[in-house]
Structures are given as structure tokens and as C-alpha cells.
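cron nightly-structures :: item 1 of 1
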Amino acid sequence: MSGTEDLAWLGDGHLLLSSTEDLAVARELLAGFDDDLGDRYRALIDGHPDASVRTCRPGHLTGSALVVDATGVNTLLMLHAKFGRWLQPGGHADGDANLAAVALREATEETGIENLRIWPQPLHLDIHEVDPPGEDPHLHYDVRFLVQAPADAQPQGNHESRALRWVPLSGVADLGCDPGLVRLAELGGEALERLPRP
């Protein structure tokens, strides 16, 4: 993550978290990923004007959040009701190309925690296939962000999870989480060592 000197933690309602259908905003978020994976995201955006809509195939953009507690030691995972696996909060963009806004919205809805703060530069990219009930298998082009909870956070799940659990960042692999989530937790821990406190 370069260029962090001009960035700051943002809360809900910040101008930089305004919703937009302009895919140039999503494309700009990917500027720091100048590898093959970043190229795959750019190809999706450039080739599909509906890339932020859930009906786009072969896949579509999603936004998710590595939610960490105020100490930066633990992350909040949800036992996903539909997939039956421990996952980070996140979901469909539903036409919003500001994926930082998507990640913060999803984190707030799925954890019930108010006053979350997001670092607006993506932390990790992960393309994975999903096969939800009643839908065809397709790809999620997930853009993942670091989100910090306030000290008084009291998580309350919604219908999308069977349980919520604070887990040490170093213990994510112990829950059998997929390699992408394990890597996200590692990157989150590294980022917290160099980023300012929200």
C-alpha cells in the first residue's frame, strides 16, 4: 500500500464514500494492483458496463471488509447462513462502483456495529467462484478493505449469519477459513502496524 500519506480513515457519510455508478471509480481503486490479478479486474470493468451489478457474468464486483477491533488484535468473522463457512462481512455492489462504500455498508449491516471506520485503499483482491442456491455458478471479484470498530463495539448479526465471533488475526486459519481470508488477515495485521489509528 503506497501513497498512504494522503489518506485517512473514513466514516459513513464522508464525501469520498458517496455511491456512484461510474466504474471509473472502481477502476481507480485498483491502481495499486499492477499485477495479473489487477489486470483481470480491469478487464472485467472495461469489458462489462454492468460489472457492478449482480447479474453480470462471468462474474461481478463485490466489496468486503476485514473488521478489526479497536486494539487491532482480533477480527470479526461471521458464520455465513447460506454458505455455512466463516467469512468476513461483505456483499454485492448492486450497481455501486464505490467499493469502499460497499464494504463499509455491508460491514455495518452484517455486524450491527455503528461508527465503523474504513481505510479507503483496498487491502486485498480475491476472485473466487460462488454457487449460491437458486443461481448459476459465477465469480465474485471481491475488493477487500480494512475496517476498524470502535472500542465499545457490540456486534449483532442479521439474517445473513448464524453466528459472529471475534477471532485473533493470527488464528483465522484455525477456523478452516479459505486461503484468501487467511491472507487478508495477514495483510490486515501488517497494515495496522504502519497505519495511523482512526
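cron nightly-structures :: done
The CA atoms of residues 43 and 50 lie 13 Å apart.
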